[in-house]
Each structure stands twice: as C-alpha cells, then as structure tokens.
User: Which sequence fits this backbone?
C-alpha cells in the first residue's frame, strides 16, 4: 500500500481520482492551494485508489494522508 501525502498545509482545490481508479506513478491526484499557488500532488507509485481522504474545499495540514493506493 502507498499513501499520497500533502507536501505542505493548504486548501484542496480539486480531487482528480475516486476509489477504484488506476493511477500511474507521476499522475496528478489532488490539486492543493498553498501560499496562493496551485500545487499538483502526484502519486509516487502506481496502483489502484483504495480510499480518498479529502474533498474540494478541505483545509489540510502538512503530511496529511490525502489518498491511499493499493
């Protein structure tokens, strides 16, 4: 299992995946707004999305788990 984590605190602008989606290493899974910039958060491994732990509009802390891959 692999986790996609927030590199810094901010607000979730968009979630690009849903449970059951297949993603490849480097695919964008979440768009995070931090310091007035849009920051794409990418999968660090390939796999199937098991769980999405955030939604658009959520405020997240640094190192929060956003998506779980299996």
Assistant:
């Amino acid at each position: 299992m692999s986790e996609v984590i927030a590199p810094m605190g901010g607000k979730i602008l968009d979630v690009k995946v849903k449970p059951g989606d297949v993603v490849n290493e480097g695919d964008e899974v979440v768009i995070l707004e931090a310091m007035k910039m849009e920051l794409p958060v990418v999968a660090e491994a390939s796999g199937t999305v098991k769980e999405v732990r955030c939604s658009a509009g959520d405020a997240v802390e640094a190192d929060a788990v956003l998506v779980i891959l299996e």
